[in-house]
Amino acid sequence: VFPGVRQAQWLTKTKLVEGLPPAVQGIMDNPALGLQELEERAKHVVSHARLWDTAEVAPRREQYCPTLFENLIHICRLMSGKYPSLSKRMLARNFRIAATWERESILLQVRGLSGILMNSMTPIPPVASKEEILATKEHVLETFYPIAPTIDLQEVNVYKELNDTGQCFRDGYPYSHPHTLFFLESANVRTDRFRPEQLRAKMLMFAFGNALAKAKALHGNDPKVLEQPVVVQSIGTDGQLFQFMVFQLNTTDLVSNDGVKNLVWIDSDQNLYERAQCVPEIKKRVVTKPAGISGFQPDTFKKFLALYLHGTV
Which pTM value belongs to this model? Predict the structure, then answer.
């Protein structure tokens, strides 16, 4: 269990920046891309997922959350007509990741099913400049003294220090760069889903794990500040509320708290819409709440699309 982003920051030697990086914000704000032209399609897919995609009165979260995701990805793919390099992407499902590193005197490992991963033929360029990376040397990581930052982590015997990017990154695989991880918290029962803070921590740990495994595959196991940082994005949703993240691995020298830190940009708790009314609410024969989607947030959709386009546009 990952209780929170603060702990994940310590484990991954990472500095947090609130909001999305300028490179992504610039895509959102660029009128030449015509992102607003796709807003009506996005509203339609929300209605499709929440109101129409079932024979029941209302679809369950375990149904509408994956449906919404697939439909949003379909809208993103429509941009490949304008940007052909977007077609050089591949979604990998149910793949496992393993990454091992040492933090202070503790051997740590993140491993397991890593969400849905979109791979690309080319890496996302670094989003922080060399000056911004060097400036992270001054950042002081939060400590949890007298509580150990690993207090609730599962202890296991590690017989092999794995750094495995999964079957989808074997030698010769053309889509060899991790681009964006997608986590769908689609369990119908609330207690079976990660809370938003837990989800963000999970997103950070697996974005870091994928970046670290890729960096070690490219540059070997020797701890070092990377000449070419590795960027991995992450998007999490329960079918309504979205979490957006851009992670940049600047260093694999993770043992001490000194020196260059990694960076993560997080945009938290963004609703795609406020409410889905599957059947009208009627009081005294008067419709008080009509069926439909209310409070659609176009900026949340644009953020999803901008992260998809990032690295190409």
Answer: 0.91
Total domain count, the chain:
1
Residue range(s) defining the domain that contains residue 39 = 3-309
Q: Distance between CA atoms of 174 and 119, rounded to whole angstroms?
A: 9
Distance CA 206, CA 290 (A): 41
CA distance 251 to 229: 8
3 state DSSP class of 130: helix
Average pLDDT over residues 22-34: 93
pLDDT of res. 157: 47
Alpha carbons 252 and 101: distance in angstroms, whole number:
8
The mean per-residue pLDDT over the stretch 34-58 comes to 88
| Nearest Cα residue to 92 out of 170, 196, 162, 20 | 170
Per-residue b/e over 210-223, b at no fewer than 16 CB within 10 Å? bbbbbbbbeeeeee
Q: Tell me what the pLDDT averaged over the chain comes to.
A: 89
